[in-house]
Design brief:
Layout: H1 5-11, E1 37-41, H2 53-61, E2 66-68, E3 70-73, E4 79-81, E5 104-106, E6 109-111, H3 119-122, H4 147-157, E7 160-161, E8 164-165, H5 168-173, H6 178-188, E9 200-202, H7 205-212, E10 219-223, H8 242-245, E11 251-254, H9 269-275, H10 297-307, E12 311-314, H11 317-328
Parallel strand pairs: 1-2, 1-12, 2-7, 3-8, 9-10, 10-11
Antiparallel strand pairs: 3-4, 5-6
Keywords: Glycerol metabolism, Hydrolase, Signal
GO molecular function, one term: glycerophosphodiester phosphodiesterase activity
InterPro entries: GP_PDE_dom, PLC-like_Pdiesterase_TIM-brl
Length: 330
Amino acid sequence: MRYSIWALAISAGLAACAAPDTPGTHVWQTLSGEPPLVIAHRGANGELPEHTIEAYTLAIEQGADIIEPDLVLTSDGVFVVRHDRYLADSTDVADHPEFADRRRVEGGRDDWWVDDFTLAEIRTLRARQVRPGRPTEFDGLYLIPTFEEVLDLAAAHGVATEPEVKSPSQFIAAGLDPLPELVRILRLRGLDTADASIAVQCFEPDFLARLNGEIDTPLLMLVFQMQELEPDLDPLIPTVALEDMIAFADGVGPYKALLVDGEGNDTGFIARAHALGLPVHPWTFRDDDPVGDGADIETELRRIYDLGADAVFTDFPATAVRVRDAMATE
C-alpha cells in the first residue's frame, strides 16, 4: 500500500480544520484519526459553472482541501476538464454555428463530442451550469481549462488534486489512449510518486491496473452499485469488490448509497474498507439534493463523518467544511 494522498494532505496541513477557540474532544473514525478531507467536486459547482478555474478558486477560498477535475481528451491529445465527453450540457457549443457540422450521434446520444475538437476550438467555448435550480447568471463567462492549468492553480494555493480519468476505454476506442499523456504530465511535474499531492481516480479497474504499473501516484477506485448493471443483485454489492481492488488501488470512492441504506443505517462498507487499509471517499454530497430517508445535508454529512469517511466529494465545499469544523469542537 502506497503512502497515501490523504495522509500527505493531513501532514502538510492541507486538511487542517480552522482552529476552534475552544478545542473539542471529537474522536474521528478516519484511518488517520484526523478530520476528514473536503473534496470540491468539480469545484464549488453549486454556485458557479462546474470545472472552471473560477469554481475551483471559490472552492479553495471556502476551505476545500482537494479540488477534483474530470479529464477528457481533445482530438489533438490535450486533457481538458469536463465531466462528460459530450459538450452540449456544460458548454455553449450549440450556439456556435461554425461547429454545427460536428454534431453526431454516438451511443444513442445526438451531441458534440470533445474528441472531435482541437484544444484551440475548445478554447472558443464557454462553460454553463448543468444542474437545474442552480445559478445561471455566470453561464457563458468562463473558459474550459486544461488539466495542467488546474494543477497550476492547486500548486499556487497549496491544495491537493484528485483528477478523474473519464471513460478511458471510449477514448482508447477512438484512438486516444489517456494513459501516456497522463503519465507524461505527472512525471514532468514530479507527481508520479507515492507521496505526491494528488490521487488519480477512475471507474475502470483495467485502466487503474495499467496505471499502477507505470507510476507510484496514489490511485482511487470509484465504485457504484452493481445493481445498476444487474437489477437482480443486492444493492450493497459494489462494481468492484474491495478485496479485488487492493491489488492496484490505494483507496476507494464509493457512491454514498453503498455506505448508508435507505433508512440511514450503516452498511459496514467503511469498516470493511478500513480493515483492508483503504481510505474511503464517498460521493456526492449536495445541499440541493435531499437523500432518500429525508435527512438534510447537515444530518447526512454528520452521519458520514461519524462513520469514518476519510473525505467527501461535495458540490458545496463551504457546507462540508462548516459541518466538519462544528463537529471538531463538540
